[in-house]
Each structure stands twice: as structure tokens, then as C-alpha cells.
Design a protein that fits this description.
The complex is a heterotetramer of chains A (213), B (258), C (280) and D (201). In chain A, 83% of the residues lie in helices and 0% in strands. With 213 residues, chain A is an all-alpha fold. In chain A, α6 (142-158) packs across α8. With 258 residues, chain B is an alpha/beta fold. The radius of gyration of chain B is 21 Å and the shape is elongated. Chain C has a domain at 65-246: 3-Layer(aba) Sandwich (Rossmann fold). Chain C is 54% helix and 13% strand. Chain C contains 11 helices and 6 strands. In chain C, α2 packs antiparallel against α11 (242-279) and α4 runs parallel beside α10 (226-236). With 201 residues, chain D is mainly alpha-helical. Chain D has helices at 3-19, 27-61, 68-76, 90-122, 127-142, 151-197. The longest helix of chain D has 47 residues, at 151-197. The chains are: A mainly alpha (213), B alpha/beta (258), C alpha/beta (280), D mainly alpha (201). At the A-D interface, α2, α3, α4, α5 and α6 of A face α1, α2, α3, α4 and α5 of D.
Amino acid sequence: MEVTSMSVLKRREVAVFMTALAGIAVIADYFLKVPILNTAVADLLRWGVILASFMLIWGTISMIRIHADVIRKKTPNQWYYSVWLVFLMVVFVAVSLIQGLAGPSSRWMYDSIYVASSSTYYSILGFYMISASYRAIRARSGEATLLLVIAVIIMLMNAPIGAAVWEGIPALGKWIVDVPNTAASRGYIIGLAIGAVILGVRTLAGRERGYLG
Amino acid sequence: MLVSGRIAALGALVIVIVVYAWLLNRASKGKVPRIRKMAGFDAIEEAVGRATEMGKPVFFTPGISGFDHADSPQTIAGLTVLRHVAKLTARYKARLIAAVSKATVLPVAEETVRQGYLEAGRPEAYEPGMLRYLSDEQFAWAGGCIGIMHREGIATNIMVGNFMGESLLLAEAGYQAGAIQVAGTANRSQIGFFVTVADYCLIGEEIFAAGAYLFQDPVQLAGLGAQDVAKWIAIGAVALGIILNVLGIPVLVNLLKM
Amino acid sequence: MAGEDAWTKLGRIDPRILYALLIIVLIIPIITPVGLPIPITDQTRKTYEAVEKLPPGSVVVCSMDTSGAAWGENGPQAVVVLKHLFQKPLKIVVVGFETDGPMLGQQALLQIPKGEKKYGEDYVNLGFIAGGETARAAFGRDIHKLVSRDFLGNPIDKLPIMEKVRNAEDFALFFTFTSLISAVEMYVRQLHAPYKTKVVAAIIGLGVPSIVPYYNAGQVFSILSGSLGAAEYELLTKMPGEGVRLSDALSLSTLLVVACVVVGNVAFLAVKKKRKEEKR
Amino acid sequence: MDFALLGSFVAVVLTLLIYSFLYKENRFYRFAEYSFIGVASGYWLMVAINNLQSVAWGPIIKGNYLYVIPLILGVALFARLSKGYSWLARWPVAVVVGTGTALALRGFVDAMFIGQIRATIAAPMNFDNLLIAVITVCSLFFFMFTVEHKGPIGIVAKIGRYGLMVYFGVLFGNHVMTRMALLTSRFIEIQKFLLKVLGLA
């Protein structure tokens, strides 16, 4: 008896049912004014927030596991980086536990290591922008030509110097952003919304189960 | 009981669900909507053929995302295209190199390629070495892809999935390697780079049509059909609304404010 | 023949030469600022005037939905807006729905002059709330039931400011400093649609074109566009800072990109034309 | 010891190590990369724990015992580590996905479908707003998949495609601005450090 009830719970359908139940409640909550439902969904949302923090913790643990694996196997050219990574992580957690997350030591590490490196890391893209503009970005078709002409006008508008190149640039740029850009991106948004709704319906109906692993 | 101001939205949602259910039902009876021609997908065959002629490899990547994000539909679309590419490389006897950026994607991608080779009737030609897992880190992965493009002298570069800051880097490397490039993403901020650097482009939502277009998957075809009905509704509403607006009749606006 | 060689060569320049050029173009204006004029856009002015006109005691939320990587643009925005808010008799709530947010918010709070304002009475940092869209919806609904402590670990029931801040209906203005289009869209869905909250999207420049339709539809109250938006706001508040400092280098480097696109394409078209002629 | 100055020094060294990648991929670059991921993951862990204290532990202490349920569900996430009980981990995921999907869905219909259509037709009818309506419709036609792009619809879809190119062009231009701003702000950091060291600031 015990075994059969367990194996029922193990089935994916149970999880699919939970997804559907939570989803339908949240949707109904938006359109209906039913106090019991509204209160229950407010609680459900807060549960979601709690579960999301667990997911964040899970993510960090998975990452430690990957690096622990690398260290254990002594993967060549790799394991000492992983040691360093785990070391910094442990130090950060230790100082935050002692002084608090908003304490001076964690802020110091966060600022001088994390913010400095991550912002540098992405700023490298500025360099690539230059080389690609020169070496790869081409007016290879009518569409690409239009795109590039617009891009150049917008760049000149964004650079305060643009008005010096031609005084009509700021006004023209603003019109492009406000009219054709608004329109096309609105079409894009409406299409996106429709796609998301269909995908959502499919998920809540249990026809999309990829997320269950 | 209904919350005022949201009734129009509820109506739209109900319509979409009903239409979708109806189309799914039709699809289960084998009646599916026909899908328009899409140059980006059609170009893949030509691109793979070129690799065979030149005796150089085809490179593929499904982008930077895995399955645990809002972007996972893009990864799935990329893998659907990979299945098609694998089928073609098997048929045309071209060499395939596919690089993934997330460890979780690797087993799925392996299965996908194996499936493609099986569908082409050449399961024996599949080798696990066709797939490379480079790194979970953004630039380590991108750097690895660029290395492959240059070292192997690829003839064809196909990139479909979610791409972020590395999009331009990869497209530039493919261009420098002299490859014919087919690129697609639903990441709005990056599409412009693909349009200006790649030879063929799949724009936004187009990549999500992969399963329907390349494999005639009935569930996905029904989904696309339902989306198009919703787009017709949007188009009709805008057209009617503009006419009524010009005539000074605010009835539709008021209806949508309900 | 010689001409073709030159064009082809021009198209195949070592990228490191271009990198060096860029470095020069960035360093010169940093060392000797040119002070190019910065025109002020309507949207920035609208934001500024909205803050100026807020009645005393209004609650302004500053949600830090950014990351270390994007802080180069969001940082100057957040600093100047917070400086301005702290000069006014307003209540300021800092919060973050992306992991990096509250720490960066804390750094920004430490940088700016606080004037008469006291922590817990006039301003507070509620820290990070996990859960993305779900967290944003729950925050708008009822803050007290959602959060029990601030970023420093104080129970929020003991903070006087929180008596005035219970849910989205208390927000006079809601700033999001963000690198994510999706973050702004979540507020459109979870704060503006149900509560008509006035959301100001202080977003990196890259995100602006995708946000404009929401602004046009009144779903986003106004937009601060990247570091340029920060520079404009600095000029309006007469507190020039990081944004203004960035703007000269920004102008010159953007011009370099334009030049690269133009030269690269001229070379490309020249080679293409020549090939066509040879085929004839 | 001046910790602020030391901090700036570390930041500048890491910045230069990362830029060395522009010359060639190298060990220093990876060292810097792993440094930031190490600190970041420590930070993420701490921030998640803090968040739990605030949103879960706080209410439970106050006597709201209902919050024990999500706490247990959250712990169930770690059942993935065991072979026999990994199915338990699906439950919290199911709740999160169900809530998140539905929240997005209801907002998408209201704010982005109805909301954007309403904005298009409620605007005062001048040339610009009419043009916005026309291009919006054309771009929707471009994204139609079950209609062949031939004849009049082909022309309309083509206009839509060109409209989208304008949008991507604007994105491209703004993209350059963001990239250059982020790059410049790193250079300003280096300059600040140098001025401090030289005693000029």
C-alpha cells in the first residue's frame, strides 16, 4: 500500500497538476474579485518568492559541485582556477557572516573584485564593436543598408557632436525613434505577447514539460 | 465579480484558448495549417551543400542559454534546427561540428544529432566528437567557438538560439573565416548584428517556427495557427479602431477599456 | 590591380590597430574634457519635473535591477537621481529584484550627501527579493507581508518610514535602474497594469528603443536613456558628475564607430564593384 | 593601510588583466574571470540566505506557520541530489513555473496585447500616429506564418520587414552608445586611481 501511494506521487502528472492548479488560480485572481481566492493567491506569490531563493541557493551549490569535480579530477589547466574560485567564494561568505552582507569587508571584495572585473569583462565588447564595424558589418542587401543608415543617424544623434555634423540630425533621429521605431517595436511586442500566451497556455495545459527535467 | 478594466483582456484570453484548443483538435485529426516559405530555413540546405563541395566543416551552435531560463524556448528552437542540420550533413556527407555553451545542453544536443543521422539513414556516421562542450562561461565559450572557426576553416556557420554580447564576435569570426552564415535569434538587441553580418537571417519569432517548418510537428503547427488568428484579431482591431477614431466614434477604445 | 590590393588590404587591417585607435580616442577627452554641449530630451525633463513637483512626504521607490556589468551606465543615473531625491522632502525606498541590485544601491547611498535624512525614517534599503516577476507582483500587493527585514537586518516593523509604505498604491514614483528590457516589461505588467504606478525606466541606452512603445502608450511614465540620460539629469539638477564626464568620450568614440562603418563599407563596395566589372 | 586605495589597486590590476585578452587569450585573463565568478557566487549565496531570513523566517517567527509549507517545498529542491527521491524536486519547480507562467501570461494579455492595441487606436489621428498604426500592422503581417507572403500581403509584409530594420537600426545605434559608455567608465576608473596614486585627486 505504502509503495503504491508513493509511486503515484512520483509520477510527472502530479507535478503537471500542481503547475496547472497554481497557474489557473493566479490567472483567475487577476480577473475575479473573490476575497478567498485573492488572499490565497497573494500567499502563493510569497511562496513563489521563497522557492525562488531556494533555487538561487541550488544554483550556487550546483556550481560548487562542478568545480569540486574539476578539482577532484585535477583537470589539467583548469583545476587551480577552480580552487581559486572556491577559495574566494568561501572567503566572501565568511566575511559576510562575520560582518554582515552590508559590512565593509564584503563591500570591499564586491566592489574591487566583482564590480571591477564584471564591468571590465563586458566593456571589452566596446573594442569588438570597433573591429566588427570595420571588418564585418556590411551593407550586403537593401535591408542591411537601411539598417546601417538608420544606425548611423542614431549614433550621430546620441553623440552630442551630431548636431554639428548636420543640424537636422537630432530632430530626424528623434522622429525615427518616436515613429517608425515605436511602430515596429510595437508590432514586435504584440507578436511576442501572443507567442508568450500560447506558450503559457501550453505549459499550464501540461503539453510543455521540459522544465520538469 | 469580474474586475472592471480587465474584462477585455479576459475576453481576448478566452478567445485565444478556444481557438488554440480547436486547432489542436483539428491537428490531432491530421488537419494542420500550411506554413509560408522562410528563406532563412531554406538557406540551410544550400549552406550545407556548399560545405560538402568545399570539403570543409559545418559549424553550429544553439546559443548561450540552457534550459533553466526564460530563454529556454530559444535553445530548444536552436536544437530543432540542429536536428535538421545533422540530417543534412549526414545526407550530404559533410563534416559537422556543434559547440554548446551549457553542460546541461550537451547530452540533449548529442541525442539530437544522433537522431538527425538516424533520420537520414546513416546512424553509423554519427560520432560523439561532432559535439563540443567548451565552457559555461560566456567568453570562454565564445572564444572556443572562434578558435574552431579559424582552425578548422569552416565553410558554413549556422547559429540559432539565444545570443547575447558575443553575437557580434561570433558573426565577425565567421565572416573572417569566409563562411556562409545563417543566423537567428529572438534576442531583439542582437538581431541587427546578424542582419548586417550574416548572409541569411531568422528574425525574432521566426526561430520558434523551426519545429513546424522543418519537421511539420502538428502541435507546433496548431500553435502557430492560433498565434496567427490572434494576430488577425490585432490587425482587425487596429484597422477598425483607426477608422472609428477618424469618424470620432470611441466605441472600440471604450470596449478595450472595460 | 594596385587599387584592388589597397582596398582589400584596407578591409583586412589587424584589429589591434583599431583597438589602439579607440584607446586614444577615449583617453584624450578624459584627460582634457572638451565640454561638448548636451541637449536635454523631453523625457529626462519630464522625469526631473515630476520629482520637483512631488508633494512633501511622497514615497519614491528606487529599484536597482541592474548588475555590476551595467553599472557604468546605471550607476551615474542612480547617483544623480538619489542626490536629487535626497534634497527633497521625500521618503525613499531602495530595493532590488536582481541579485546585484541592493549592494550597488547601498554603494550609491554611501556615496551621496544625505543632508538631514535619517536611515529608517526618511530612507531605507530593503535589499534583494528573489523571484523575478513573482517577487515584483508580491511587492506591489503587500510589502509588509512579503519582507520582514531590511538589507542591514533590521526588522521593518520597527522602521518608521515603513508605516507609510505598504503597497503599490503608496508609490508616488517608481524608478527602475536597469539593464534589462524584461525588467521594465515586468513592471508594466505587474505595477502599471493593475495599480497604474508611474514607472520611470532608467535603462541602459541599448534598452531604450524597445521601451519607447510603452512610453508612447503611457504605460511607462518616462525614460532616462543610459549615461546620456544621467548627464542630462545632472545638468538639470546642476550637479555635473559621472554622466557629464562620460559624454565627451562617448561622442568621440561613437564617431569612430561611424567612421569605421563608413570606411569598411566603402572598401567592401569598391571591391564588389571591381569584381562585377571584371566579370563583364 | 589605506584599504580604499588597495581596493582601487586591485580593481585596476584586474581590469588590465582582462584587457590583456585583446592581445591574446592568456592565463591572467582567466584568473581575473574566475576571481569575479568566485566572489559573485559567494554573494549570490549570501543574498539568497538573507532573502530567506526576510521572506520566510520572519513570518514564521511572527506565528504565520503556513510558511512552513514553502520552506519544506524549497528543501525538496535538494532531493535532486539523491537518486531515489529526485522526483520530489519537481514539486517546487512546478509551483514556481505555474505561478510565474500565469503571472506573465495575464500581464501579457492585458498590458501588451490589449494595452498596445488600445494605445495605437486611441491616439489622436495625425500623420505620425497614422503611420505608427500602419507600420505596426505591417510588422504583424511579417510575423504571420500561415499566410504566404505573396501579392498584396507580400508587399505589406515587406514594408513590415523594413519597419523592423529601422527598429534594429535604432537598437544598433543605441547599442554602440551603451558599449562605449561602459568602456569609458572603466577608463575613468583607471584615471581616478592614477590621480589618487599621484596625489592629484
